[in-house]
UniProtKB/TrEMBL annotation:
The chain crosses the membrane at residues 26-49, 69-87, 108-132. Gene3D superfamilies: Fumarate reductase/succinate dehydrogenase, transmembrane subunit. It is a multi-pass membrane protein. Membrane-anchoring subunit of succinate dehydrogenase (SDH). It comes from Arthrobacter russicus. Its main location: membrane. The lineage of its organism: Bacteria, Bacillati, Actinomycetota, Actinomycetes, Micrococcales. CDD domains: SQR_TypeA_SdhD_like. This is Succinate dehydrogenase hydrophobic membrane anchor subunit. Keywords: Cell inner membrane, Cell membrane, Electron transport, Heme, Iron, Membrane, Metal-binding, Transmembrane, Transmembrane helix, Transport, Tricarboxylic acid cycle.
Amino acid sequence: MTAIEAPRSGKVNYNRNKSSGSKFEMFAWLFMRLSGVILIVLIFGHLFVNLMLGEGVHQIDFGFVAGKWASPFWQIWDLLMLWLAMLHGTNGVRTIINDYAEKDGTRMVLKTVLYLATAVIIVLGTLVIFTFDPCVVGSDGVPLPGSFCPAP
């Protein structure tokens, strides 16, 4: 049977480069704690407004989202939730990749895919939040049924 040494016994070699002097990992650790607390507030606020107020889940449709995103407050709220959730999750997956990918090449490829996917989702999500137009017009220039256009 193989015994696992205690982390502070001095017998465990983590094979980490201590000469870089970078504080990145400390900032990443701190970011995870702070973003987690902020995300709890953002997510529970989001769930409360969407599920508890009004008619609950039955009220959520195109009009509900159009009404919420007409307000800069809700645009910023959802933007913060998107950015923090993506960066928080990306940092967590980055840590897992660093812990479990044994080869440097594998680690680099996995983290590159992770960072690209994160960037695409953040950019697309941000564009959706700020370019959302509730007035959907058909090819004939007439608003489609169910769209929310101001009266002419």
